[in-house]
Amino acid sequence: MRIYLNNLISKNEDVMYSVDILFKKTNGTDFKPSIYLDIDAIVIDNVTNKIKTPYSAKLDIGKTFKSTGSNRYDDAEKLEFFRNLPENIDDAKLYILGQEKKVWKDVSKPHDMNQISFIEIKYLDKFGKSKTMSLSDFKQKLKSTPYSRNDFTEINPSTFNTTKEELYKSLYNRIITD
């Protein structure tokens, strides 16, 4: 996916991979490093500084957009979560607790919430280097209208003219021959 998107973006665009929320302690260290939201890729228009195209990369075609039930977020709901997440840390904690999603089980206990001092967005840049940005900066990249599933472009096995089974077989063959 990275090679595909890196070759697809123009000079006026940038890309963010594996976009997640990162909880930080007062001293700046990570609180329980974990994947909490994971948006696969986002192409940013550098002229407008807005998200041009969010991407979803799943092995099961269409899985991204199937109902995931009340305990998970689909990709569009993840971006809307970021939009609605308050920047004030106390308000953000209350908002997260109000979500009632199992996604937050690692941070929802009172003694855990008390350790969280601020929130950042973590991602990988087009070179695979880990980066962070403030929640405020990320929220400014969101479009003004709510995101829907139709805003996402899927990158899945059919994008590369293959199947999930062929990818599994190829990975298995590589593992046993390397």
Fold and architecture overview:
This protein has 178 residues and is of the alpha+beta class. The chain is 29% helix and 24% strand. It contains six helices and six strands; from the N terminus they run αβββαααββαβα. A six-stranded mixed sheet has the order 5-4-1-2-3-6, sandwiched between helices. A hairpin with a 5-residue loop joins strand 4 and strand 5 (130-134). It is globular and about 45 Å long. The two termini are 22 Å apart. The relative contact order is 0.20. The model has no long low-confidence stretch (mean pLDDT 87).
The fraction of residues in strands falls at 15-25%
Strand elements, count: 6
Radius of gyration from the alpha-carbon trace, in angstroms: 17 Å
Class computed from helices, strands and strand pairing: alpha+beta
Order of helices and strands: HEEEHHHEEHEH
**Could you describe the largest sheet, including whether it forms a barrel?**
6 strands, mixed
Q: Number of helix segments?
A: 6
The poorly predicted ranges are none
Shape: globular
Strand order of the largest sheet: 5-4-1-2-3-6
Distance between the termini: 22 Å
Overall mean pLDDT stands at 87
User: In which range does the helix fraction lie?
Assistant: 25-40%
